[in-house]
Amino acid sequence: MKAVDRSEPVAGSTSLGDLKALADPTRARIATLILDSDEGRTTVTRLAELLELRQPTVSHHAKVLLDEGLLRREPAGRRVWYSLAPDRVDEVSELLRPAGEPDLAQGVLERIVTDLSVRFAGTFNRPTVDRYVHESYRLLAERARISRYLPSLTARFATERLTALSRATGERDGVPEVLFVCVQNAGRSQIAAAILRQLAGDRVRVRTAGSAPASAVRSVVISALDEIGVPLGAEYPKPLTDEVVRAADVVVTMGCGDACPIYPGRRYLDWALDDPVGLPLPRVREIRDEIEAQVRGLLATLEVNIG
Where does the chain cross the membrane (predicted)? Predict the structure, then answer.
């Protein structure tokens, strides 16, 4: 069978390219970085540096995009350049950066404020809800890479913050709340939270945050959790805010130093764990297992029955 030269798009194949490949956060970042590059093209070496991933990992994701007809590969001497396939640029750009987004986002934000004002009626007034919604949007927008979902993530983030604020300022209901904090909120804290949710269900409330959040949860983390049947769900990196610390009974930090404010009556733990960013899957598995042991130990101290 004759090999297909992927240096140029195959005639008639671009209509079959699957944009669902961009649902993977790493692949979406690759496409966005290429869009943002000065020449509209870049190399795997440069992408690996920007993504803080190993070159083989980036090469794997680039090949998927190449096979779907979304990228074009251009050898030039000892370098290989990657750019978006010319006839896919518009639709990829539209997917990653919807046209007219600022106005759309503002309209969505006003709806979020209205909806959450109803949801939290009797607890918070509209000005308070408005402040939290717009502040949450700004905090996420500072680090957003795939802005298509920024309004909906803002709704979730604002809801979580208002719920935490209500708990922090109101009466406790006896359900322990644990906050996991790491630097990027894309690795260790997400692993710990996913395992705790799987083990304890609704008997423990779980939150996560990062002192310097990444744009997405690392794909290698999702893979390591999937191997043991633990879903990550729709989790996303989010910045550390004051009210989630105040709402927590236990605050577990992992490599973020003194980023967490200290409040009396909270239990603070620091787990010394390697950051899985940029590490191969076998090492990430080891970190995952170390975190699981720590989580099970924490559950024992919370006197939560896990069977």
Answer: none
Per-residue pLDDT tens over the stretch 233-264: 878 899 999 999 999 999 999 987 666 777 78
Q: Single out the residue in 45, 65, 95 at which a domain terminates.
A: 95
**Helix (H), strand (E) at residue 188:** helix 188-200
Domain's final residue, options 76, 95, 114: 95
Q: What values do phi and psi take at 256, rounded to 5?
A: -110, 15
Domain of residue 235, CATH code: 3.40.50.2300
* Long-range Cβ pairs for the range 98-101 (8 Å, 24+): 98/147, 98/148, 101/147, 101/148
CB 162 within 8 Å of CB 129: yes
What's the confidence (pLDDT) of residue 130? 94
pLDDT of residue 140: 86
Average pLDDT over every residue of 163-177:
89
Decide: residue 28, CB within 10 A, 0-12 exposed, 13-18 middle, 19+ buried: buried
The C-alpha atoms of residue 184 and residue 189 are separated, in whole angstroms, by 9
Considering the domain architecture, whether residues 70 and 110 belong to the same structural domain is answered as no
Question: 281, 251, 254: which is closest to 264 by C-alpha?
Answer: 251
Inter-residue contact 178 to 205 (CB < 8 Å): yes
* Residue listed under structure tokens 């390219």: 17
* pLDDT tens string 171-186: 778 899 999 999 999 9
Claim to verify: residue 192 and residue 297 sit in the same structural domain:
yes
The residue range of the domain holding 207 is 176-302
